[in-house]
Amino acid sequence: MFFNFFVSNFDFEILTVMILKKTVLTLCAIAGLCYSANAQDLRFDADNFTQKQLTMPDGYEVKFRAYENIFYVANVEDSVYQTLNIYVPDNLRNDSPIFLRTYIGGYLAAKAKQPSANDASGRALEEGYVVCIPGSRGSNSFVHKEIYAAKKGKKKKKQVLTDEFNTVYTGKFPAGLLDLKAAVRYLKANDEVIPGNSDKIITDGTSAGGAMSALLGVTGNHPDYEELLDKMGAAKTSDNIWASICFCPITDLEHADMAYEWLYCFVNKNIRQLDSCQMQLSEKLSASYPEYLKSLNLKNPETGEKLTAENYLNYLREWLLKSVNKAFDSGREISDTIGVAFYDESKESRCIVDFNLEKYLAYVAKNQPLKPTPAFDSQNFCSNAPSAENKAFGLFDGTTLNFTEFAIGHILPDELLKRVKMMNPMNYIADNQAVKAKNWYIRHGAKDRDTGFQISLNLALRLQNEGFNVNYFIPWDIPHTGDYNLNELFDWLETLE
Ligand code: DHB
């Protein structure tokens, strides 16, 4: 009796509070008082769409609602790039994941685009996924800032300086990553109104975009980014994702130079024809890789054996052997001109039983000239031009920067050190403060020489060693590119839980 009375009284109280709250909120909303600028700017308008369609290569017409040019941060710094587009297919699947495709390449700024029939964005729509294509700032994006300066004895007056002085590059590292994180937050903050399930965000990118996808996958909700996201007016919510698709990710930039020289050092003379300046650097860089490799503590997931400089190349050779055999099994002609494949004629079904890694790497280097030495942190060495990475790590005024201890000659200044850390997914895989994607699809084409094979392989191994669901492969005959074998990719997505 007492219990009953208590419950009904309690229910009544809750009800009264709820009604009061709702009334107050409605009144405030009408008066435009209660919502912060943040919440107001970042609300998704479900009625503001246009109906569009896309013709797929097989002639199929995908019809969808297009929500475009939506700002995803409250404090927009660059109105050209800090927007996103959302596409909702008419054949929306149940509990649809959200497929977020970034078009970042070369760490450059990327606009929020429309989905394309020729890549994973169109295919995702065809498969009934919600698609989000965010724009993001990059190493080449800038804004013109009007500078207000106080003139002596006068009131504050607007003083617009010349271009040279008021051009501010706002997209240097980690700006592009922050933008993508803010876009993820926008999707999560509006989960109730945007179709699809924002607990199931899948990111996809190629090259520099692949690196961004990897970073989104391992840095979810990490405090390193919090203050910066807050300043941008990103939605105050989480930014962890569910699955990360990384095509040829150009990452682990601090160690990419040594990895590259260690892998390709034997072609330096004949194929690469390095001059004596580059030759010296190559030897130094290459010599420092084994120690780094050891520090990663990688294990062969099948045998549990530790991977070190002694057995690593053989492990890579096994991957390439799997790759060439897969291509061979699917009917591909494997040319002997590469000089890598040996058939065992004694067996009933011909298969490729051995693979000469050195000859193969020489073939890769002949197919497309290797990068100069150093390949990534290149500027100020042997008259090399600044690399895409030197530009991306540069400053607001456009100055390009070195970013490795090797180049700078001493420990990096604090600010730069923080930025370098924030841009390397390897730093976060074992960090418990980061919420990581459970599912990983990582590809590095067998003919891709833009970075050493170790970069994607180490990322995959580290994730796999930590217990994540990783699908890694080095597909045969594929250069530096992404969004290929979409049947395979979308079949894999169907297996995810
Ligand atoms: C990309 C390619 C590179 O070789 C590189 O160093 C950085 C970025 C790219 O295609 O995005």
Structure, explained:
The chain is of the alpha/beta class. It has two domains: 38-252 and 426-494, Alpha/Beta hydrolase fold, catalytic domain (Rossmann fold, 3-Layer(aba) Sandwich); 256-289 and 312-376, no CATH class. It contains 16 helices and 15 strands. It has a nine-stranded mixed beta sheet, sandwiched between helices. The radius of gyration is 26 Å and the shape is globular. The relative contact order is 0.12. The model is unreliable at 1-40 and 148-154 (pLDDT under 50). The chain binds 3,4-dihydroxybenzoic acid. 3,4-dihydroxybenzoic acid binds at residues 105-106, 207-208, 250, 388, 450.
In short:
With 497 residues, the chain is of the alpha/beta class.
Topology of this protein?
Elements: H1 2-31, H2 37-41, E1 50-55, E2 61-71, E3 83-89, E4 98-101, H3 120-126, E5 130-134, E6 142-144, E7 147-150, E8 156-159, H4 163-166, E9 167-169, H5 175-189, E10 201-206, H6 208-218, H7 226-232, E11 243-247, H8 253-264, H9 276-296, H10 312-329, E12 341-343, E13 352-355, H11 357-367, H12 388-392, H13 405-408, H14 414-422, E14 439-443, H15 453-465, E15 469-473, H16 486-495
Parallel strand pairs: 4-5, 4-10, 10-11, 11-14, 14-15
Antiparallel strand pairs: 1-2, 2-3, 3-5, 6-9, 7-8, 12-13
Helix pairs in contact: 8-9
The structure holds 3,4-dihydroxybenzoic acid (DHB).
3,4-dihydroxybenzoic acid (DHB) binds at residues 105-106, 207-208, 250, 388, 450.
